[in-house]
Design goal:
The protein has 210 residues and is α/β, with parallel strands linked by helices. Helix content is 30%, strand content 30%. The radius of gyration is 17 Å and the shape is globular.
């Protein structure tokens, strides 16, 4: 079953065409988008998550992003490569925001904050966080609540191997429940710990299978 469908996609920045392809189908599973900086990975993810305007059609389980944007976004979780949050709020305040909009249980929040060892830092202002702490916070927020598609842009940067191993376990468990993941990384993903369903790359403005 096709979980995510993109058709007639074109994205330009001024006169520069970044992405242009006819069709891409992605089924349920864990998919890795390879490529270095500047290849269009983040632009592709921002299109899927409704963060940037584009030409074309994006469907998630039959729901059209442009026609039903609120319903579409409720089914997707997007964690940016370089998360940007208000520096004056605490980690707890940000997590509570996601908890409220995604109707998540306290037990779920406690599991995630404990998993990534962030409990001692949640009452600190985000402006005082290290890059690794900020990344862990963004991953916690990404996994709050129930969605169908997780889009994680460079999830491995700035986190240590222990946190990466925990992230792999979390992704695998969610995938077993029928969730779909799109991951980008210019680093090698440990395929012994992550059951990759398919690998893509961006070549000549198109998404191609490797």
């Amino acid at each position: 079953m096709t979980n995510l469908l993109l058709k007639n996609i074109e994205k330009k920045y001024g006169n520069l065409t970044v992405l242009q392809f006819d069709e891409l189908k992605i089924d349920t599973g864990i998919f890795w988008l390879k490529g270095g900086n500047g290849t269009g990975k983040t632009t592709f993810f921002r299109i899927i998550s409704g963060q940037t305007p584009f030409e074309g059609t994006v469907l998630l389980k039959g729901i059209n992003l442009k026609q039903k944007p609120v319903k579409f976004r409720a089914k997707i979780s997007y964690a940016e490569a370089d998360p940007q949050y208000p520096l004056f709020i605490t980690g707890t305040e940000l997590i509570n925001f996601y908890k409220e909009i995604r109707k998540a249980a306290d037990k779920e929040i406690a599991f995630l904050t404990h998993l990534f060892e962030m409990d001692p830092f949640l009452d600190q202002k985000i402006g005082d966080y290290s890059s690794g702490m900020l990344k862990k916070l963004s991953l916690i927020c990404a996994f709050i609540g129930e969605v169908d598609l997780y889009v994680l842009d460079e999830p491995l940067i700035t986190i240590d191997q222990a946190a990466a191993t925990k992230l792999y376990l979390l992704i695998n468990e969610k995938a077993k429940l029928g969730k779909t993941f799109l991951l980008s990384s210019h680093q090698e993903i440990d395929k012994e710990h992550l059951n990759i369903s398919g690998i893509f790359a961006i070549k000549d403005k198109q998404i191609v299978r490797c």
